[in-house]
Write a structure and sequence with these properties.
By secondary structure, this protein is mainly beta. It contains no helices and six strands.
């Protein structure tokens, strides 16, 4: 979990099965944002505030072939969430 001062508290989760997601606590309410490029082999590598805003950038990586070699190709995706 990481407290990011932009737009409340942001927490990331990578469940054993399913897509990674981000939780945002703002004004006493949690909002769950599922990352669409998730799935097997996906993980979140970073969460950073967007300077001067209440948004965050979330970077994910996903192995292109989860059953393939550990040093196989990966796809990186950056999301901007608010």
């Amino acid at each position: 979990m990481r407290a990011v001062p932009a737009g409340g508290l942001w927490a990331v989760a990578v469940p054993a099965s399913g897509s990674p997601y981000v939780l945002n606590l703002r004004d006493g309410r949690w909002t769950r944002l599922t990352l669409r490029q998730g799935g097997p082999g996906a993980y979140i590598t970073g969460v950073e505030p967007v300077p001067g805003t209440k948004r965050v950038w979330v970077q994910t990586r996903r192995r292109d072939d989860p059953a393939g070699p550990p040093d196989g190709a990966v796809t990186a995706t950056v999301y901007e969430l608010s």
